[in-house]
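Quiz preparation item.
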């Protein structure tokens, strides 16, 4: 945590990395429109539509971030993201 308190130095970048797997879903039915006295209704049934992995890199002291989405997470995908 002490690193976040240091002043910004472009010669020593502080880059944070996070990754998050996500399940992609597709709605199977259209919501029913709202009527007076009742909000619109949504059926929560969905169809699985694959997965994705989100990689996020942030340099908080410089106000910089980069987000990348890949179809899957393999060690090769991770290595490409770290290299970039």
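Solution:
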């Amino acid at each position: 945590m002490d690193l976040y308190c240091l002043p910004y130095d472009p010669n020593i970048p502080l880059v944070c990395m996070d990754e998050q797997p996500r399940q992609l879903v597709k709605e199977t039915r259209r919501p029913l429109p709202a009527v007076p006295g009742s909000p619109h209704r949504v059926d929560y049934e969905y169809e699985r539509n694959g997965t994705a992995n989100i990689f996020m890199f942030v340099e908080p002291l410089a106000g910089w971030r980069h987000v990348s989405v890949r179809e899957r997470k393999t060690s090769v995908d991770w290595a490409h993201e770290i290299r970039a």
